[in-house]
Amino acid sequence: MKAIAALVGVTLLSALPNCAQTRDYPVKPVPFTAVHVNDIFWAPRIETNRAVTIPFAFNKDEETGRVDNFIRAAKALKGETFENHKFPPYPFDDTDVYKVIEGASYTLSVHPDPKLEAYIDGLIEKIGAAQEKDGYLYTARTIDPLHPHPWSGPERWVLEGVNSHELYNLGHLYEAAVAHYQATGKRTLLDIALRTANLLDQTFGPGRREIWPGHQIVEMGLAKLYRVTGDQRYLNLAKFMLDSRGPASKEEGAGNRYVQAQQKVVDQTDAVTGGHAVRAMYMYSGMADIAALTGDMAYVKALDKIWENVSGKKLHVTGGVGARAAGEAFGADYELPNMSAYNETCAAVGNDYWNHRLFLLHADSKYIDVMERTLYNGLISGVALDGKTFFYQNPLEATGAAGKDQRSPWFGVACCPGNITRFMASVPGYVYAQRNDALWVNLYMGSSADIKMDNGRTVKMVQETKYPWDGAVKMTVTPDQAAAMTVNVRIPGWARNEPISSDLYRFEDKNTMPVVLKVNGKPVPVKLDKGYVALNRTWKAGDTIELNMPMPIRRVLANDLVSADRGRVAIERGPIVYAAEWVDNPNGKVRNLMLPDAAKLTAEFKPDMLKGVEVIKGRAVALAFDAKGGVAKTEQDFTAIPYYAWANRGPGQMMVWIPNSVETAKPLAFPTIVTNAKVTASGKPQQRNLNVIHDGEIPTASNDHAAYFDWYPARGNKETVDYAFEKAGTVSECGLYWFDDTGQGSVRVPASWKLFYKDGEAWKPVETSDAFAVEKNKFNRVTFKPVTTTGLRIELTAQPQFSVGIQKWTAK
Ligand SMILES: [Zn+2]
After folding, report:
1. Burial of residue 79, with CB atoms counted within 10 A of its CB: 0-12 exposed, 13-18 middle, 19 or more buried
2. Distance CA 643, CA 361 (A)
3. 415 alpha carbon to ligand 1 midpoint, in Å?
4. 8 A C-beta contact, residue 794 and residue 777
5. Is the distance from CB of 755 to CB of 779 less than 8 angstroms?
6. Residue in 219, 252, 372, 415 annotated catalytic
7. Cα–Cα distance, 615 to 493 (Å, whole number)
8. 399 near 326, Cβ under 8 Å?
9. 671 with 627: CB under 8 angstroms?
10. Residue stretches of the chain with pLDDT short of 50
11. Residue 665 CB partners (closer than 8 Å, separation 6+)
12. Would you call 415 a catalytic residue per the annotation?
């Protein structure tokens, strides 16, 4: 193996031109290596990512056997036998190692660390040893080719169209390989990657295998290999894989919208309902790369339409995408739930990759508006302030009771932490872009940048600002010599009364405080073109640009078609979306609050709270049902924190969209005998904390995903759920609200159910002539002969082939 590796290395090296390709994005990003961030917001985060998250994630890769998979594959290739002959839990576990190598390589580019570099060298050796002779690299098969992972299929590539993830793994390998090569100048990982890419070139193409990656990213990865080697084959392959997608193919997955194969990519017009969000985001990003590298306008046309659909109908106010848990997918137009919003952290990362690429194609700030919204809210919410726990899902409302309401140090499917490591390390690369003698300033963060322009000139840009807490930004421009240049200064949508460029969200009021822009102390007109003020003049060393964007607290309203947000407002200040969290509000509750439109809100910077945040304060109204069913209102203090910082202080309630009327508010339930009951259940109820069934809330429908539990994936099963009361009480009525997700999932109302009460140690059926109904979208009530008891039991039987679940269970 070693001899072959060396030989291939030499051949590849001689074939490595210096970026032979001429066509690429019309606007080029200024690489993160050229931008040194020194502010109070990003610099500590980037450092936490380097010093804490990356070592932590490598450690988890080791601890969970992900590194071991490569060692086992290498042993298998040598014919060695070893214990623990199981395949890895998921066929894409290799990517978790690749992703962290990518993130670590980015940090090495700006922060040399011989120990880290040596550790990565060791990992690369293990990866190389797991590579098969012809370049194939996929531990889920190599470890035991006769018994590969069930998703992998009996032979290479046969299940690639949906779930084998062979190409997905390679896409992440390519991203890591290019990052490592650029950071260290070492070709070790790049050579491994190129050997796999050459195998792909021999395997796929017209007249050979015609299959697309079931989980995209190899397109972006191949584009990077093409840029770094100039080898046209990699570009052709990426385009081929995009173009082979569609309903006409004979491959598994043809026509499948979950993997974006419902249509040819150039004919796609929206992020289809049921389409996996991360896969979609990576595909759109890959399409943008191929469009830039080939000039294919059909791709651009399709991307523009898809963007209109996502930004107009499928984007949460936090920038999160992929509303549905079922299939980790996009929902229907305007299906933007709060409590059940899935919004995978990886999808937020993908959303930023995609929007940044669209900016590079179109030089329009509307893409940066979406990118910035996602970046400051639904993306960094994915990692805790200490850098050691993560969110996979990023809901906009929480009870605190569900597992998804708490950050986790790792996941069985661990895609999100790795994505955080690579994204955070490269954040400074999103600040500037350039073309010839034009510079774009896209993000504001205290920093110093040495920018090489396409025209051969260099410009030093220094930003002094307290953004995102303050909208004042001072920039000092120092070109290598006085020269004509256009500095395009971005005026974010939030500063010009347009949250994003669609009618999905709008500000409730109009900010009339003007944005002020000065060059060398003299005001210049704020004349916008694609969201930028173009400052076209002869710039000389030390020229200053002062931008002052007033940051009032804004209330945001959603399009009325978003039913989840009707009668509710979100709070924003600058690029930050706010959330009310239990710990800052009286009685540890926020979901029963109402914020009147007239309530005055003020902002205050708290340097010691949540690593320094601007909090928003005011007075809200807390609502609670009284004994007679009336609603009591209590005015109380109200505090909101940046959404990204929630769930750093223990589990509890959180809410982004706050009711602004009594009609839409959710009053606190009046205590009943079940309020403090202990809930237990047989079997393995999934998804949600059991305590949601007695929280006194009223679901909107049986398919309301806000707070329920179910026994999925068990089907046709018989289960029990028990209430144990604090002390004996008399009950004569129960109400059951069933969970049923027909159309989305496999949970249905039960085939039948029965009700028992505890008599001593025995369970006895209640005496009733009522039917035990299984109707959807309502409480199925049963009145019975009063019993004085310490507990109630439901026995339920699922329909054959289906799972069963409960929304609420009341008793009085
Ligand atoms: Zn993920």
Report:
1. exposed
2. 31
3. 4
4. no
5. no
6. 415
7. 22
8. no
9. no
10. 1-20
11. 592, 593, 594, 621, 623, 659
12. yes
Kindly give the interhelix angle for 114-129 and 188-203, rounded to the nearest 10 degrees. Answer: 30
Residues 281, 189: contact at Cβ < 8 Å? Answer: no
Closest CA to 350 of 253, 216, 238: 216
Residue 391 C-alpha to ligand 1 middle, in angstroms?
9
Note the pLDDT tens digit of each residue in 327-380: 999 999 999 999 989 999 999 999 999 999 999 999 999 999 999 999 999 999
Amino acid 14: pLDDT: 39
Can you give the pLDDT at residue 641?
98
- Distance in Å, CA 774 to ligand 1 centroid: 37
Is the Cα torsion angle 386, 387, 389, 395 positive or negative in sign? positive
Cα 138 to ligand 1 centroid, rounded to whole Å: 20
Closest CA to 321 of 352, 339, 354, 344: 344
CA of 467 to the centre of ligand 1 (A): 28
Q: CA dist 282 to 152, 217, 367, Å?
A: 21, 5, 16
Q: What are phi and psi of 97, to 5 degrees?
A: -75, -45
Q: Which pair of tokens denotes residue 348? A: 């937020």
- What is the Å distance from ligand 1's center to 349 Cα? 9
Using CB atoms within 10 A of its CB, is residue 248 exposed (0-12), middle (13-18) or buried (19+)?
Answer: exposed
What letter represents residue 131's amino acid? Q
pLDDT the model gives residue 732: 95
Q: Can you point out the beta strands (E) in 349-481? A: 397-398, 432-435, 438-441, 447-452, 458-465, 472-479
**Distance from residue 11's CA to the centre of ligand 1 (Å):** 37
Quote the DSSP letter at residue 700: S
The enclosing H or E element of 754 equals strand 752-759
Supply 678's token pair: 């202990």
Tokens of 18: 């210096």
Q: How far does residue 343's CA lie from ligand 1's centre (Å)?
A: 9
* Residue 744: per-residue pLDDT: 79
User: C-alpha dihedral over 550, 554, 557, 558, to 10 degrees?
Assistant: 60
pLDDT score at 404:
80
Under 8 Å CB-to-CB from 292, ≥6 apart: which residues?
23, 24, 25, 26, 357, 360, 361
Cβ-count burial of 420 within 10 angstroms (0-12 exposed, 13-18 middle, 19+ buried)?
buried
102 given a catalytic annotation:
no
Of the candidates 333, 331, 430, 308, the one whose C-alpha atom is nearest the C-alpha of residue 374 is 430
Which residues lie near ion ligand 1 (Cβ < 5 Å)? 344, 346, 415-416
Q: Which residues fall within 8 angstroms of residue 506, CB to CB, at 6 or more apart?
A: 499, 556, 557, 559
- CA of 414 relative to ligand 1 center, distance in Å: 7
The pLDDT assigned to 89 comes to: 82
CB 651 within 8 A of CB 405: yes
CA dihedral (202, 208, 211, 215) in degrees, to 10, reads 0
Q: How far is CA 379 from CA 146, 321, 447, 637, in A?
A: 40, 10, 21, 29
Q: Are 225 and 231 in contact (CB under 8 A)?
A: yes
Active-site choice (102, 175, 219, 328): 328
The pTM of the full predicted model, rounded to 2 decimals, is 0.90
